[in-house]
Amino acid sequence: MTEIIDNRAHRIRVLKGIIQRLHESQGAAPPEEVKAQLKALVRHTDATEIAAMEQELIAEGMPVDEVRAMCNLHAEVLQEILVEPPGIETLPGHPLDTFHRENEAIQVQAAEMRAAVDVVRRRPGPEELAAALDRWRRAYQELMDVEKHYQRKENLLFARLEKYGITGPSRVMWAKDDEIRQLLKRVGRIIARDDLTLDELVELIDTTADPALDEIEGMVFKEEQILLPMAAATLTDDDWADIWRDAPEYGWCLVEPGEEYQPPEAASPPPAAEIPAERSIVFPTGALTPEQIRGLLTALPVDLTFVDADDRVRYFSEGAGRIFARSKTILGRKVQHCHPPGSVHVVQKIVDDFREGKRDHAEFWIEFRGRFVHIRYFPVRDGAGTYLGTLEVTQDLTPLRALSGERRLLDDEA
């Protein structure tokens, strides 16, 4: 055991072996010797080593879905071993502090929803049942705020960790986040119905509401014990400053951030370079200054994102009221890391087809927060036909679909 304690690489290998044995148990209680070995190892293991273990399993060919499934097994064993999360000292308003306070609030609402469904499970009389259902709906609406927490984690925190080669958490945790999203949607469909018998409602609690709450609480544990300590040990003050600046784009989950933390002055973004007004970029059909190009792209009634030939995000437009939030932390990030694991194969297929000249566009349309959203992808090529990258164009078509008849005058002329 001394060799394991003193050698990080050896610890990671042993940890992988333990987790694989837990996985092989297929949900049965893990052998006591495996639990004892894990307990001894955890005393000398930090969060980065757990992440490295997951990353190695993926690199060796284990599907992300399998690693995700294993995640609950080893987290369950770790919960028996780790009582208090490692302390992280930060000022109120620091992104770590905000993530932590949000997790506390998420746990409160999860407990509130669990208490409500427990009342329903007891099959109470009509008045108590109505009150319990109302309590359940209120707690559910509060928990739906978790989307903001997950989006900041996925788009800001994961992006920074990937700078240091830490990609395991983004692939495994994002898949778990999507699993929670789907479970919460199912819960929402249940509580929106008024045609269920009490027996049907209790059965759906067992199969849907309880698993959703288990996964939400499990994710809080994984963040507090693994992700956030690893981020605290890895990211620099400048990284946290970038996350702090971009966070308002996604909003806050259940709590407002404190105000004591301010990013270091050195981390402030440099002022934009002065560009002489006379320096224009000449196109075959005219010439524009960089400032004019920026204004033109911002004025377009669509959201643009450009991914270069190396699959890295290089640009997104700054128009008001973007449909999908974007932050500068995605710039330079692999596009495959900017999407949920469940849809990466679709992104990869589009990019590969564009690169190989197999298609000249791809399009999708979805209902999103009450809007009808049209998403199109186009290959970008130079004059010789060489692939330069992919352009994503997103547009809210809701007002256009509502048009009818004709209008030939300005609003103020009508």
Task: Describe the fold and architecture.
The protein has 414 residues and is an alpha+beta fold. Helix content is 54%, strand content 11%. The protein is built from 14 helices and seven strands. It has a five-stranded antiparallel beta sheet with strand order 4-3-7-6-5. The chain is globular and about 70 Å long.
What percentage of amino acids are in beta strands? Answer: 5-15%
Mean pLDDT: 82
Oligomer: single chain
| Form type | globular
Largest sheet: 5 strands, antiparallel
Feature tags:
414 residues; disordered N terminus; 5-stranded antiparallel sheet; alpha+beta; single chain
In short:
The protein is an alpha+beta fold and 414 residues long. It has helices at 2-6, 8-24, 32-42, 47-59, 64-81, 95-121, 126-143, 146-162, 168-191, 198-234, 237-246, 290-299, 344-355, 398-401, and strands spanning 281-283, 286-288, 303-308, 313-316, 362-368, 371-381, 387-396. The strands form two sheets. It has a five-stranded antiparallel β-sheet. Strands 1-2 form a two-stranded antiparallel ribbon.
Please write out the topology.
Blueprint: H1 2-6, H2 8-24, H3 32-42, H4 47-59, H5 64-81, H6 95-121, H7 126-143, H8 146-162, H9 168-191, H10 198-234, H11 237-246, E1 281-283, E2 286-288, H12 290-299, E3 303-308, E4 313-316, H13 344-355, E5 362-368, E6 371-381, E7 387-396, H14 398-401
Antiparallel strand pairs: 1-2, 3-4, 3-7, 5-6, 6-7
